[in-house]
Each structure stands twice: as C-alpha cells, then as structure tokens.
Amino acid sequence: MGRRRALGLGASALLAGAVLSACGGKGQEDAVPSVGAAPGDEAGEEISPVLEGIAEEYGAAMSLAVFDHDAGTLYRFAPEESSFEASIVKVPIALSTMRRAAEEGGRLSDLQHDLIERSVGYSDNLATAELFRLLGVQGEYLSEQGPEEPGDPAMEEEDARKSSDYLNETYDLLGVTGTHADGTWGDNETQAADQVQIMRGIVDGVDWVDPEDMTFLTGVMTPEDESQNWGVGAMIGDSVGGEAVTDVDVKNGWIQDDTGAWHINSVGVVFVDDRAYSAAVISHGFDEQMVGQEAASEMVRAYFAEKFG
C-alpha cells in the first residue's frame, strides 16, 4: 500500500471536506475520535515493568503512550506525567497554518511551505515564531510576501491571544483535551495521550486540511536532520516483531525549565508496511539534554521489543 495508509481518507474525500469547511465554517469540521476511548493494550502488564525500570534508571519522570491504529488499542505508561511542549508544538502550529489556508479557499503558499519545512524539519524557532504570529492574522496565508529571514516578532498581548485562540481551535478539532496555548508557544504543558491524539489525526486524516498539504507535512516529518533521529526517530532502520520498519514520522523537542532541568519529548508514527503506531514520549527532570534523548529512545525501543518480541 506504499509508505503509509493514504492518511485514512481518500484524497477526494479529504479535499471535499476541506472545501466544505472553508465554505461552511468551523461548524462543519469533525473532531478526531479520541484515543482515550480506546481499549487498553493487553500487553501492558508485560511492558510497564520494563518502562518503569528505565525511568528509575535515569531518575526522571517519563511517560509513554502508543496507539495501535489496526488494533484500535491504546497503551499508556505513567499517563499522569506532563511536560512542556517545547518543539513538538510545531506540528499543531503547522496543522493550524494549513487549516487557515483551507479556510481562506486555497493551499499553502510557497512562503508557508518554506516556514513549515524549516520549523518542523529543522526545528527552526524563528520560522515557528512567524507561523505562530500569522495564525492570528487574517488574509496573509495566500500571500507570497514575507521576510526572507523571519525574526522573532515581539507580539502584542492581543495578537498573541488571537494566535493562541486559533491554535486552541485546532487542538479542539484534533480531539486534544489537556493541552492549550496561553499566549505563547512551546512552554505550555502537555501529556503523552494528547500528543498521540495529534498523531492520530495525521494518520487517519482530517477534513479541514488539504490532502496535498498534509502529505507535505508528513514528508518534512521524515527526519533528515540529526536532531530528529532519537526518541520515536530511533525506530528508523529498526524492526518490529521481525518485520522491518518501513517509515517513521517524528518531531522532537527539548527545553529547560527554571531549575535547569531538561524536558525531553518525542512524538511520531512508526509504520510497518500497512500498520501504523502513533507514539509519544513525554519526560522531564534530566540534568543533561543528551541523556534525556537516550532515555526517550530506550523507552520507545523497549515498548516495541516487549510488545512484539
């Protein structure tokens, strides 16, 4: 079936949905079904003690969630843990940008393509700041005008609130319940299940994003930059139950809190032929960034090793 499952919906259905959303407003947009309503993974009793050992070894708070799209089951380890979003918020910001473009009757401009590629593919913070600013601005999404090198705009409180409100509308449409923007991006708290919910929307498809734009986003989530080759990205070139991993989409993030401790997060989708597993690691409490990244990779690998042998 190719590198992924065609985003769940046929291209014509997705395009029709985007057109309807653009014409009819938010009332006709459907929210992504909640992973929280999915039954638990029966293998959890074998997996959890291993992950608990990893968290104890690193002395950090760590949480993992994985949604098996074929089985329709959700595995959760330490679901109560939260972390600052850091750069994993760049995926919902990109989705919001694509939603705005569809609502205004078109697709991403060359400028938006460039900003999203830099933001998601290379974790460029200045490009992300410009995308976030534009979320609160009507009528700029189809324009080719924009700075060649966007700066970090000093946003007025009202403008930042507009951008946050638009991002929060996207969270609502994705079925995210515990993550909200509050005038900023990257330093709002999130949990693993919320991040898996976002990945489910990408895999299964949404009716408020042009399908070609969504394909572009998953393309830039296929890691080329070394900063994305850990966490969920560690499954690149690996195998699951003796079968080769055929594709991985990933977005990683890291940020220090006021105490100097690192918050380390990784979200993405692991594809094994036609099967898809949306995964998220949320963690905090690391003294060193690289140690946290190693721990996130170890936790993802351990989940797949314990579940599939």
Please outline the helices and strands:
Layout: H1 11-24, H2 44-58, E1 61-68, E2 73-77, E3 83-84, H3 90-103, H4 110-121, H5 125-135, H6 157-174, E4 189-190, H7 192-204, H8 211-220, E5 239-240, E6 243-244, E7 247-256, E8 262-272, E9 275-286, H9 289-308
Antiparallel strand pairs: 1-2, 1-9, 3-4, 5-6, 7-8, 8-9
Order of helices and strands: HHEEEHHHHEHHEEEEEH
Mean pLDDT: 86
CATH homology superfamily name: DD-peptidase/beta-lactamase superfamily
Say how many strands there are: 9
Shape: globular
**Overall radius of gyration:** 18 Å
Kindly name the structural category. Answer: alpha+beta
Q: How far do the termini sit from each other?
A: 25 Å
- Count of the domains: 1
Question: Major sheet, described briefly?
Answer: 5 strands, antiparallel
Oligomer: single chain
- Considering DSSP H and I runs of 4 or more, what fraction of the residues is helical? 40-55%
Count of helical regions: 9
CATH architecture tag:
3-Layer(aba) Sandwich
Low-confidence stretches: 1-27, 141-152
CATH class: Alpha Beta
User: At the third CATH level, what is the topology name?
Assistant: Beta-lactamase
Bin the strand percentage: 15-25%
Give me the side-by-side strand order of the main sheet.
2-1-9-8-7
Q: What structural keywords apply?
A:
alpha+beta, two-stranded antiparallel ribbon, disordered N terminus, 41% helix, 17% strand, 9 helices, globular, 9 strands, 309 residues, Beta-lactamase
Describe this structure in words.
With 309 residues, the chain is of the alpha+beta class. It has a single domain, classed as DD-peptidase/beta-lactamase superfamily (Beta-lactamase). The protein is 41% helix and 17% strand. The chain is built from nine helices and nine strands. The chain has a five-stranded antiparallel beta sheet with strand order 2-1-9-8-7, with helices on both faces. A two-stranded antiparallel ribbon has the order 3-4. Strand 5 (239-240) and strand 6 (243-244) form a beta hairpin. It is globular, with a radius of gyration of 18 Å. It starts with 10 loop residues before the first helix and ends with a helix. 50% of the residues are buried.
